[in-house]
Every structure is written in structure tokens, then in C-alpha cells.
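Quick one: structure for this chain?
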Amino acid sequence: MVAELIAADPISRALQTAREQRRAALIGYLVAGDPDLATTESVVAAVAAAGLDILELGVPYGDPIADGPTIAAAGQRALLSGTTLEAVLGLVERLHHLLPVVLFTYFNPVHRFGVERFAERAAAVGASGVIIPDLSLEELEEVRGPLRKRGLLFPLLVAPTTSIDRATQIAAASEGFIYVVSRLGVTGEASGPDLAWLEDQVGRLREITAKPLAVGFGISTPAQVARAAACSDGVIVGSGLVSSYAESHGGEASGRAAGYVASLVAELGRPA
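Got it. Here's what it folds into:
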């Protein structure tokens, strides 16, 4: 039953649709509640209409180890607006019909909320998956077991420093897609990805897995998206999307975010 749920999940369907259209999928990350929940809701509706395929919805957290300054600042704005994990789950319930939603969070908020309770609530509100970047391969089962029981996928990250043997283990355990980190350090636009290295890394991973490979960290411009899309199944854009509507609210924010996403969607196609 779990295998059937995973095979039919919205993430896999979105990636398959992109493949059929001879392009990479566009995966966008934004922080729930930045600058407030109403703006997040309008932004998500706008970027879904503009062509975003999958949404990574960040749960704001006070100690985000993988986040660069842009996303960390967005998280602080969200926390100041009173955004809680329960509020984020409510947002997913209102938005999941627009596109697949992957919750991006750290382990501590999940642990405090209760792992079983979190898995049950995430599934009930319509989330498609969960990413928890600060869990190691050896620590996964406490969370993955409850998620799998409810049909939620658990994509894992492969870092630039990951050995091929370790990457093989991560690829075997990852669900939905494998998140290929394009460079060392935290997220952010200031230092872009090493695209030549990324193409080589994706090529090596293709030799050990048939699972979809989505690349992210530092990818923000249309030119970077075009090159990343040529070698991957999905391109993840975070800081660029967050920056596109920073310091704005409501309709202004959604318009700016939609325009940014539209500029990237145009670069996703692959040569015939």
C-alpha cells in the first residue's frame, strides 16, 4: 500500500509531466509567513499560475544551519509575524491543490511538535513530502517511518563533499527526488553555483541511480537555470525567489514573484 501511494504521489507526477514536456521541473522555495501568511498565500497562487511545478515551503526556524542571509532574514520576518508550525500546516491545507508542496524544516521543530503528530498532520493537510536537511542518513528512520506510513515522500540531499559510496546509500534511501547541492556553504545568490562541476556531479550520480535529480543552492538567474536544466530533472530556486518579492506585501509581492518565476520557466526546455 505504501509503495502504491508513493508511486502515485504528486511530486512524481509533476516530474513526469516535465519529462514528457522535454524540460526540467522548476522547484521553488519560499518561507511561509514572510512577511505574513496572507502574502505567502497570494505569492504561492501567483507562482503556481506562472509555471512553478513543485513548492518547497520553509517552516521558519530561529537557527537555520543551511540558510544563507536572504532566507535567514525571511525566516526572521516570518517569526516576527507570529508564524508557527501549526499555521504553516494550515497554509498547506489551503494551497496543496495548486501544486505539490514539500515542507522544508529542521528536526527540532518536528521533534517539539511530535514526530507522529507532525506526520499525521502533514498528510492530513495535503503535503506531498518533507525535507529535513539536518538529519543524517543514520538518523532518518525515526522520521521516515511515520512519514512513509502516511504516503509522504522524504527527499534527501547529496552534498559536494559526499563520497560516491555515501551518495549511493543516500540515493537508495531518497524518495521523490534527490536534492543535489550545487556548491559548499549555505543557500544564497551572492556566490553562484559551479555549473561545470555540477554537470559532472550529476553525470556521476546518473551512473548510480535512476531517480530524478534536482539541483539547487545558489541558482537564481535565467542563465543559471538554463544550464542546470540541461543536465537535471529539476532546478531548485530559493534565495532568488525570496528576494524577488522581499519587503513587499499582497498583490505587489505576488506580481513580483510571478514575473520572476515566468523568467525562469522560459529557460527550462531541453534541446530536441
